[in-house]
Amino acid sequence: xxxxxxxxxxxxxxxxxxxxxxxxxxxxxxxxxxxxxxxxxxxxxxxxxxxxxxxxxxxxxxxxxxxxxxxxxxxxxxxxxxxxxxxxxxxxxxxxxxxxxxxxxxxxxxxxxxxxxxxxxxxxxxxxxxxxxxxxxxxxxxxxxxxxxxxxxxxxxx
Length: 158
Known about the structure:
It is built from two helices and twelve strands; from the N terminus they run E-E-H-E-E-E-E-E-E-E-E-E-H-E. It is mainly β. The two termini are 13 Å apart.
């Protein structure tokens, strides 16, 4: 899944997150699994993806996130290529504040997602935290900050 914007000419490069163990090998589940497992069970976050299956090259996937508490949403993905990226907030949309029990739907009108090769299965992780986070904070496990998380699987086909 790649970002597209009718307002932007050029390429958006997302910062990739890769979890490497002490021996230098990449973990298959990586940072997403570690973040999800460390989330507070008392902070309920719901994530839905519609449709959950799209054809490579198509637009149209919509993500809805609801959080029991207000906070800041960070949406990460492990794409069908196995790379982990932060997809929201992004260069086109930095407004990641989410209010308690009010769904936030992405993408917004200023940007879209496009299913990118290869075909396969990907995973999204919604993290809602007390304070805005950056990539370094995510890699450090949010530095002890409380947060909730939820994940969803999506599929891309040829």
